[in-house]
TrEMBL record, chain A:
Example of a GO MF term: ATP hydrolysis activity
Keywords: ATP-binding, Nucleotide-binding, Transport
Record organism: Streptomyces griseofuscus
Name under which the protein is recorded: Metal transport ABC transporter
Keyword hit for Repeat: no
UniProtKB/TrEMBL annotation, chain B:
Subcellular compartments: Cell membrane; Membrane
Primary residence: membrane
GO biological process terms, semicolon-separated: response to zinc ion; transmembrane transport
Protein's UniProt name: Metal ABC transporter permease
Bilayer disposition of the protein: Multi-pass membrane protein
Top-level lineage group: Bacteria
UniProt organism field: Streptomyces griseofuscus
InterPro entries given in the database record: ABC_BtuC-like, ABC_TroCD
Pfam families found in the cross-reference section: ABC-3
Keywords linked to the UniProt accession: Membrane, Transmembrane, Transmembrane helix, Transport
GO CC term (a single one): ATP-binding cassette (ABC) transporter complex
């Protein structure tokens, strides 16, 4: 293991616009190796935009982003990064099985997309880690919201990344799946994986989190130990569900109405 | 099998088979990325290419390929940069392409609207040996891309944001999809025509989906269905004096209706099997949960 404390993600003065409107107004954020950092904030505070700027989906208006000490534009070592997007972005128009979805996460480790036995083993192992191995041949459309989320986590883990970036992994996820997700994440963190995740509240992941960064209106409001939940919010099982589907997107399959 | 004795029918059937393979093969990725109507747009733009081919007295097939590839690249660029005004720009591209085709073909000494009609709705019996050569080359390119890069194209079409983080060249793959779709349109142009080509890209995929759970199986069934309808439509048009393009498209839609009707009981049986599979699946009936546990029993 390399020296602890070396920055894995480093943002300096990051600005980003969406549709001409400034969404990030100069964010500084550093995540050190082995750290688990939660990005918190209200709707529209810029949490998801910050994450999507880091992975290059939203263009950078100003500032610098480094991944593993390399400027993001020059960064090529993507098998070191595992990404879990919001579940709403991951719906295709053609049926696909759980195995097919998880296999696409393995592309970072294969040459020209050629799969060998090692790759197939890695897919099976990732599915076992999230308790979805028995659903490997099922269509993802037949899964509940929580099961779908577990598949997306397996897809991120299948390349065995050193850094996990997750956008609201607990939104719209049933309690059983939340438990499994929390346990999977705990195993990863114990093995030394660095984690940056957007959360609406700390919830069942609270014991894992080293540091919380709170955003408001595209600025960092707080960077330090995670805030303690108080009152109603502190009760076990308290769970806000705020799907952030953009207008016209696929409805979220929570399993409640669909 | 007397239709096989005619050289024009041999050419027509070869072209039909190639269209039956290529149109659903690229169409599945368009459906997956929810751009099912892109083939229709490219078809409109390709009309300018056909018109230019007549005007410059070159092969309309190759000219249509060049123009529709350019049009498809332009559409992909509009998708990146013109997020807010994108649909207006696309509309202008489509109708400009159509108007350009009509204009050029009327300016051409040998051209008339009657020539254009054979490209709009297909004209299998007039497929020339040089057309067949062009169609074979173009179809080989489409098959190579859609099968050789299937994992990459699947990842980009399923979830572009995630594909970026696996290090895939997302922009290059998007452009390649657009170019491949444009090439497929010109392959299919002589068989079903520019205005009906999109149907062969989309409907076999939609029909196959009624039966399948996996992408691989959807791909296989869509291509098998594509070949079946193009070949049977071509043969039907030989015996009955019906236009092959329209026959093929109507057969495809009929296949969709039949498969949808067959799929309903299949889906019901699958749902029952899933509930019978026990824990892990969602119960079909309402179950009132016991008092909320500590989560220990859930991990069992």
């Amino acid at each position: 293991m390399e020296t602890h404390g070396e920055p894995v993600i480093s943002l300096r003065g990051v600005r980003a616009d969406l549709g001409g409107r400034p969404v990030l107004r100069g964010i500084d954020l550093t995540v050190a190796r082995g750290e688990v950092v939660a990005l918190l904030g209200a709707n529209g505070s810029g949490k998801s935009t910050a994450i999507r700027t880091i992975i290059g989906q939203v263009p950078l208006a100003d500032g610098t982003i480094e991944l593993f000490g390399t400027p993001r534009r020059a960064f090529r070592d993507w098998s070191r990064v595992g990404y879990v997007p919001q579940r709403t972005t991951a719906a295709g128009g053609v049926p696909a099985t759980v195995t097919e979805i998880v296999s696409s996460g393995r592309l970072a480790r294969t040459r020209f997309g050629l799969f060998g036995k090692g790759d197939r083993d890695a897919v099976r192992e990732a599915l076992e880690r999230v308790g979805m191995a028995d659903r490997a041949k099922d269509s993802v459309n037949a899964l509940s919201g929580g099961q779908h989320q577990r598949v997306l986590i397996a897809r991120a883990l299948v390349a065995r990344p050193e850094l996990l970036i997750m956008d609201e992994p607990m939104a719209g996820v049933d309690l059983a799946s939340q438990e499994i997700l929390a346990r999977t994440l705990k195993t990863q963190v114990e093995a030394g994986t660095t984690v940056l995740l957007v959360l609406h509240e700390l919830g069942p992941l609270e014991p894992l989190i080293d540091r919380a960064v709170v955003l408001r209106d595209g600025c960092v409001l707080h960077d330090g130990p995670p805030p303690r939940a108080v009152g109603q919010h502190a009760l076990p099982g308290h769970d806000h569900v705020h799907p952030h589907a953009p207008a016209g997107a696929e409805p979220i399959r929570t399993g409640l109405l669909s | 099998m007397d239709f096989l004795n005619y050289a024009f029918m041999q050419r027509a059937l070869l072209a039909a088979v190639l269209v039956g393979i290529t149109a659903p093969a690229i169409g599945i990725y368009l459906v997956q990325r929810r751009q099912a109507l892109m083939g229709d747009g490219i078809g409109h733009v390709a009309m300018t290419g056909v018109g230019l081919g007549f005007l410059l007295s070159t092969s309309p097939v190759w000219m249509a390929t060049a123009v529709s590839v350019l049009g498809a690249l332009l559409m992909e660029l509009i998708r990146w940069y013109g997020r807010t005004r994108g649909d207006i720009a696309l509309a202008m591209l489509f109708y400009g392409g159509m108007a350009g085709g009509v204009m050029f073909i009327n300016m051409a000494p040998t051209g008339s609207n009657a020539n254009l009609t054979t490209y709009l709705f297909g004209s299998l019996s007039t497929v020339s040996p040089s057309d067949v050569n062009a169609i074979c080359l173009l179809a080989a390119f489409v098959v190579l891309v859609t099968l050789g890069l299937r994992r990459q194209l699947f990842a980009v079409s399923q979830d572009e944001e995630f594909a970026r983080v696996t290090g895939l060249p997302v922009r290059a793959l998007n452009l390649l999809t657009a170019v491949t779709a444009a090439v497929t349109v010109t392959v299919a142009m002589r068989v079903v025509g520019l205005l009906l080509v999109s149907a062969l890209m989309v409907v076999p995929v939609a029909a196959a989906q009624q039966l399948t759970r996996s992408f691989a199986m959807t791909f296989a069934i869509a291509v098998a269905l594509g070949i079946t309808v193009t070949v049977s439509g071509t043969i039907a048009s030989f015996y009955q004096d019906v236009p092959p393009g329209a026959t093929i498209v109507l057969l495809t839609i009929a296949a969709f209706v039949v498969l949808t009707a067959l799929a309903a009981p299949l889906a019901r049986r699958r749902a029952r099997a899933a509930t019978a599979a026990g824990p892990g699946g969602d119960p079909a009936e309402c179950v009132i949960p016991a008092a909320r546990g500590t989560g220990e029993e859930i991990s069992a």
